[in-house]
Fold:
Amino acid sequence: MPAAAENSGLSSATIFALSSGAPPAGVAVVRISGAAAGDALDRLTGRVRPEPRHAVLRTLIDPADGRALDRALLLWLPGPGSATGEDMAELHLHGGRAVTASVLSALAALPGLRPAEPGEFTRRAFETGRIDLNEAEALGDLLAAETESQRRNAMLLAGGALSRAIDGWQARVLMLSARLEADIDFSDEEDVAPLDPGFTAELAAMAGEVARWQGRAPVERLRDGVRIVLAGPPNAGKSTLLNVLTGREVAIVTPIAGTTRDLIEAPVAIGGIPFLLIDTAGLHDGQGDMVEAIGIERAAQAMAGADILLWLGEPGDAPLGAVRIGAQADRRVLDPAAYDLLVSAQEGEGIDALKAMLVDKAGRLLPGENEAALSARQRTALDRLGDALTLGQAEADPLLVAESLRLARAAIDALTGRAGTEEMLDGLFGRFCIGK
Structure:
């Protein structure tokens, strides 16, 4: 169990919660986890506990007065082979409000039971080693997923894509550490044998594997959306194009130059990919008031942080790497050779082609079908691991190599959450719903 978990105090009681959607519903699933889960199940049925992992139909009774509460399907899931690693029971009730409320009330009256905190079921799975921190984070992302790419990435990580790689690195680092420590312990202090080439080759192989994971896309692009910034001079059609791409009136559109004076952000999903569209103030060299000057400065900052920059000004003025959009093509004579794409937001000309271009470009910025994107926390820990392995290859002194392996083990512990702080864990599991 992680050190932080030992002092959390969350695992002392048996917990219960409604783990399905709010009633009314066809079925309401109530989960119970902890040492008293089996006893609670016995008292609710007044009968012998069902066989593990066999669904049975039983009448639930209120232990306080013996009245029938519901006719429900029950599952008994003894630990450690359960979702939380503890003894668990599941009650599949009829999903009416009164039924659900009566069963939860009966559970609350049983000694040793209390309602679960947000994310406590998942936290217990983490504390008992059923999942590591990466899988726990992925479950939170899966609950919050709104697009297909977000769901796919969360499923990869929740399924252990990164965790399996970490387990392999950990086993190899521990093996190398034990081997090196033995060599040091059984050698004279002034005559430690040099490392054999195979040792360094193993460090290099691991460093290469870690580097491939370091090259994965950041998960922030999946969570927040690929940042598309629309930039150009005043009245270039940026706000109109923003409204068309989002399918709603996000920005005010008028013939008056300088209508947009601050950043306007609008999330949208196109082709199952999340995007964050950012409209900016019109760029110009003339004199303006203080508000307009601030808007232009913020526009420049947004352009610098864009994943994809759509330039709606003169093609020769386009920043390096920008997509040159010939906007308002229905009422201007434009040279197609000077632009990457001609569009008319009013007539719909080129809009489908623009969306296809955005999806194609975003696909190169996001992880592939079977590649997982990584969070900032994971990338930081991987950087530490990669640095430690690189340091180990560069050192000739076995004592210094041993220290680099210690740093590698610490980085792996940070990846899995074994070196996490209580505050960080509280923040993570607080994102979850009560029944998760």
User: Anything to note?
Assistant: The first strand starts at residue 14 and ends at 18.
